[in-house]
């Protein structure tokens, strides 16, 4: 029937309703997820995609501003906008929700990531033998150990009695020292003498013990123990260092 037919009814001329002309849009996963961050990490784990990285900065006022991004197997970078919030948790959930929305729009409802691009060696370039690869890896390990040892020597070369605590803290933070224990020995009944002891594991794997000693105070004892440990660590690195006052 033609639209200008004078006998046509209003219902026949009216355009079809939206629900009749197009299927209902599926609900986005980001909108339906009660915990967007957990949902995003779960998807990454299931699909073997590297976990997202969150970048957080302090926002004007009392709050934060953060973004989230992840890289798909084919190298595609997916990143959110900056989201403000009163806490890290609020910001991370908001950024995660946006990433889920972006991923669903990019990958479709099934959210199946693209396969990793195969790495093919250039044509005409000779490939190293398995023995050469193993030798190169071992050489890299030796070089890494040498560089770490040099970094340890540089750090210890700046140590002095004035900054020995800071030096020891850096040794722990950078992983040169582990298993640190500096503590007060329980005193005998009626004794007013403060006894302390200490130990740690040096970079060479040896355990250093500072035998029980008397200390005027806990702070003085800690300073003495730290100085003794630093001197032992320096000796293991071939450095003669004297940072102890001699009296705890």
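Q: What amino acid sequence fits the structure above?
A:
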């Amino acid at each position: 029937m033609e639209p200008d037919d004078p006998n046509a009814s209003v219902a026949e001329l009216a355009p079809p309703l939206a629900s009749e002309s197009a299927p209902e849009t599926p609900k986005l996963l980001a909108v339906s997820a009660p915990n967007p961050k957990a949902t995003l990490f779960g998807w990454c784990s299931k699909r073997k995609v590297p976990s997202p990285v969150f970048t957080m900065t302090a926002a004007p006022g009392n709050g934060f501003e953060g973004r989230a991004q992840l890289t798909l197997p084919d190298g595609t970078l997916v990143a959110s906008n900056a989201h403000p919030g009163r806490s890290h948790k609020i910001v991370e959930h908001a950024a995660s929700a946006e990433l889920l929305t972006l991923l669903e729009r990019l990958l479709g409802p099934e959210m199946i990531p693209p396969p990793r691009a195969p790495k093919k060696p250039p044509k005409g370039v000779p490939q190293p033998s398995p023995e050469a690869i193993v030798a190169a890896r071992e050489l890299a390990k030796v070089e890494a150990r040498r560089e770490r040892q040099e970094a340890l020597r540089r750090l210890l070369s700046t140590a002095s009695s004035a900054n020995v605590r800071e030096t020891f803290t850096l040794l722990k933070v950078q992983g040169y020292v582990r298993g640190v224990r500096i503590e007060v020995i329980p005193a005998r009944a009626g004794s007013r003498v403060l006894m302390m002891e200490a130990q740690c594991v040096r970079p060479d794997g040896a355990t250093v013990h500072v035998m029980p000693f008397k200390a005027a105070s806990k702070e003085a004892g800690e300073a003495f123990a730290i100085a003794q440990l630093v001197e032992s660590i320096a000796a293991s690195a071939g450095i003669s260092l004297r940072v102890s006052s001699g009296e705890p």
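Q: And what stands out in the fold?
A: Residues 19 and 25 are 10 Å apart (CA to CA).
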